[in-house]
Amino acid sequence: KIWTHEEGDVLSLKVEMQVKIPSHLAFSLLSDFTFRQQWDKHFLTCEVLQAVNEDEKIYYVTSPPVTGHKPRDFVILVTQRQPSKPSEPYIIAVKSVTLTSMPPSPEYCRSEILCAGFQIYSDSSTSCTVCYFSQMTSGVMPYLAANLTGSSKSIEDTALQCIKFLE
């Protein structure tokens, strides 16, 4: 299932996926962003710049160019949280950060992730619901507009690749 909500220059997206693996395994696979390029075509490269602590890492991500645009790059902080009660979800939160050791490069368009991430709910011992959330600014809109007519198709394709990767 896919939901979108537009307010001002912010587009919010929610994708809900049913996955036939335990929630702790989905959490383990999704919280390591170096795996992301295996299923998300928007991730060309992804490297860990800094392990802040056991639950937080800073990554450098590059995305392939869209016709008429430079490739994009991001410096993101990924925070992961285990549930404190069985009814609560696993959480993986993502947002852009500034790192002086990683200034913008002329060959990339430095882009920003306002807020994104996953919530993973346990449905049973062998299945879970993975919800992906993202808020995008107008700066990311041209990238999205390149396939907005097929945007839900592109989002759906990425979600199907994610499910395939997890299972």
TrEMBL record:
<dbReference type="GO" id="GO:0008289">
    <property type="term" value="F:lipid binding"/>
</dbReference>
<protein>
    <submittedName>
        <fullName>ACO12 thioesterase</fullName>
    </submittedName>
</protein>
<dbReference type="InterPro" id="IPR002913">
    <property type="entry name" value="START_lipid-bd_dom"/>
</dbReference>
<dbReference type="InterPro" id="IPR051213">
    <property type="entry name" value="START_lipid_transfer"/>
</dbReference>
<feature type="domain" description="START">
    <location>
        <begin position="15"/>
        <end position="135"/>
    </location>
</feature>
<dbReference type="InterPro" id="IPR023393">
    <property type="entry name" value="START-like_dom_sf"/>
</dbReference>
<dbReference type="Pfam" id="PF01852">
    <property type="entry name" value="START"/>
</dbReference>
<dbReference type="GO" id="GO:0005737">
    <property type="term" value="C:cytoplasm"/>
</dbReference>
